[in-house]
Predict the 3D structure of the following.
Amino acid sequence: MLTLTMSRALNEGLRCALRDDPRVLVMGEDVGALGGVFRVTDGLLSEFGPQRVIDTPLGESGIIGTAVGLAMRGYRPVCEIQFDGFVFPAFDQIVSQVAKLRARTEGRQPMPIVVRIPAGGGIGAVEHHSESPEAYFAHTPGLRVVYPSSPSDAFRMIRQSIALDDPVIFLEPKRCYWHKGEVEPEAELADMPPLLAAQTVRLSPQRGVADGPPRYSVSIVCYGPTVEWAMRAAEAATQQGVTVEVVDLRALSPLDLGSVEASVQRTHRLVVVHEAPGRVGLGAEIAAAVSERCFADLYAPVQRVVGLDIPYPPNRLEGAYLPTPERILDAVAMTLAAA
Amino acid sequence: MPPTWTGEPCDGASGPPIQVLDPSGQFTADPRFPVDLDDGDLLGLHRDMVLVRQLDTTATALQQQGELGLWASSRGQEAIGVGLAAAVAPSDMVFPSYREHALAWCRGVGISGILGLFRGITNGGWDPAAVGLAVPSIVIGAQVLHAVGYAMGQQLDGGGEATAVVFGDGASSQGDTLEAMVWAASFEAPVVLLCINNGWAISVPAARQSRIPLAQRARGFGFPGLRVDGNDVLAMYAVARAALDYARTGGPVLIEAVTYRMAAHTTADDDMRYRTRAEVDQWQERDPISRLTAHLVDCGLLDDGALAELQHESQRLAEAVRHEVRTMPMPDVRTLGRHAYASDTRASLVPAGVPVAPPAPAVDSAVRATALSAAHG
Ligand SMILES: Cc1ncc(C[n+]2csc(CCOP(=O)(O)OP(=O)(O)O)c2C)c(N)n1
Ligand SMILES: [Mg+2]
């Protein structure tokens, strides 16, 4: 076990992948000598050389478009997009080519491409550096979308994503890059839990009662950067006698709806949290799926705690935009008040 | 004196970039690109460069003190924005990159306008039409297409005006930039495409973007390319002026201004990971301000007294910048999203009965307290 930051855990994951498979390439803007603006590719250039760790010209469509050709030639490109807001020049290549080539060739052409994107807000950045573009990709059949929330998940999921023959949009919660956690660097791919499985953590009140009665329980479904905030809200709620299950989705497409459903069947209330605007977002999808699958289990309407339906604001106002622990706690209260 | 340049490329295939002031301040006229400026204009260029450098130095310090979230320094590149701003007519339009603070300064944007974005209180900061300057594009290359479209509009409206757009060596690789060149050529748009080749796109050297001087790319698109010393404000002015005059009737011109990014990419960058101090120091000798200072002192236009006065003015600007930054009003939370649409349609965007996206907590504290305390039971 090592204690690593998320940035470092990703770095180790990439190192393992480059070491284990000579067809793995890392490419993007400033991934070489600089080691990436978040240092995720630090040291990889000197260890694996400029043919495996490639500083590209400045062009996102170029990065992803050439990754398609490299993948057709049998390589496994891991592409870095420098920030969430800069993936859009590559959007056409991703949704029209990367996502569809397997289907277009009737299964003959695998697309083992990973697109790493630092995403989310809360770091006081200028425009285009705080976006949450996951819904665009989750809406696109043919892509897998994952969003780890911890160093150990980041390490495991980057390795699994690279090993997969499907394209993966790999979102990284940039405000958590320097969070530390335990990582098992020797873990074998074969021993890892499934890439697309959610993780449910149950937090019980501390008042001598093992668990609150179902009247006072709630599930909070979240992913990526909001997991930490959901945990904080959950801890505050347990102080008040509420049992909370925090479901970290980890994968956004396909979604592990089984885990969500199972949790809702235990708690009967659901709050969904994400930073992206609420309208037509993941929260809407999850609320719809839950009402289809286990409507009768719900004691209260599903609450969404999400980014506002507006362009991401200047950073001095982002506190009012983001789904903070306070807003999550309010939504928890709302589901309880409805019962 | 009208420029005698008639559109023949001068793209650095052989020989150095166009220069009229050498690094020591020695002036050698280039008959194709006359410097038709009077003494007052020359002193004005000098003053603007000095003040923009001061603004840049002060902003860098303010970032270090936590007053700005980020700062992208234009140190060493002042001659480009100042030269271009002097060459455009008031009715011309300019599209800047995020680093060209000199353009904003010279177009009269003002301290708060320039620094508000970096303070995190606005994503823009001024009205493009009012100042003849678009707000800076952070998405690399996007503004080049916007500029070409604007120039197409100027042409549709009857001609006479021109547009200038600034982008970097890194931006020269972006699809948008290259499509902009196709469009500009196809429609003979009155646009000057000014590529600032400062040697670096963050950590990536310009050689990764182009094997040939960037100005030579113009030939492939079918319009003239000019390669100019971007640390020579007089050459910058004269070349930009000639290019704009050509563009008004002749269509696009590409200018590559050769310069060097003296500071790290931004205050968030550590440039010593990818370049050497020695390389930076070399360019120090080609500083754009000291060469114009030397020239003006030589001509007798500047003396110690005038330089000291400018120094004072510069200190007063530093104080004004510090004061304005610290006292910039925080944006009102109630303005969130107000400008996403032409009218404030936030309420009508959602069906009746659904609460409008709430800046305030969705539950009032009394409800919350009751609900949570019920759970105690
Ligand atoms: C589309 C897009 N991709 C990536 C970035 C991140 N980024 C910001 S500045 C920069 C380098 C730009 O280099 P250049 O065009 O030479 O301009 P300079 O910074 O030298 O002024 C990069 C990659 C961005 N802003 N937009
Ligand atoms: Mg550059």
Observations:
- The longest helix of chain B spans residues 39-64.
- The pocket of magnesium ion (ligand 2) is lined by residues B 168-170, 198, 200-201, 261 (CB under 6 Å).
- The mean pLDDT of chain B is 92.
